[in-house]
Amino acid sequence: MILAAKIFSQKKAQKMFLTRAISDCLLTLSYPQSCAICGRSVEERRFGVACEACWRATRIVSGTEGMCWKCGLLSEADVCRDDVRCGRCEAQPFTAARAIGPYEGALRESVLELKRQPYLPLHLETLLLAAARRQPLDQSTRVIPVPLHPRRFRSRGFNQASIVAQAISKGLGLPLDDVSLVRVSSTEKYRAGLDAKGRRDTVAGAFEVRHPRLVANEDILLVDDVFTTGATVSACSEALITAGARKVLVLTISRALL
Ligand SMILES: [Zn+2]
Ligand SMILES: [Zn+2]
Question: Whole-model pTM?
């Protein structure tokens, strides 16, 4: 059993390595490429689809800004204190959520590109690791990506949240777990015209924990590309906490402007 798991993880590591190596080759062939925002050429591959100037113009959360301690919504307060709450996220079952920055500029373009190509540029990886190493996410013990429904996974060929989770797991030296949490309902989460409640209802019960033993008493770092209303990560958190997880800490590349 242990040997089988070891062989499985070695095979998986080789596959991940190959995926990255192939992506690197493809990207090298397509470089230099023009910036998805301003059209000038992107100086270095580590910046991904945006040039350095557009990255500099993109708002990145440093962790010291005023924000809701729980959901990470930026506020007018001048410092980040653990007693500040926005008043809108009380019912959400995760412990805390953070993002690299708002869904705009280079972050928005990077999120869109990650849906097309299973490749995480180094600059984005560096920003994600910096956010994961700050309080309160730094208490995490296990990394879990928000899963896609198997049907969606087959049509896209990869899960963008898994690409992010793999990099974080490797960078932080934490176990990656992309088997415990599964998506059992394929309902579209961003169906047009749905308000926050509609979205919550659509994803409620969409996730299940297949291996409760693996998440019990763990402080889960739940990873996704975008935090929109929090409905998806809340539905995942609910399933994880019901299965015995101690905390669910959420990290996304970006956060919708709300
Ligand atoms: Zn640019
Ligand atoms: Zn909040």
Answer: 0.84
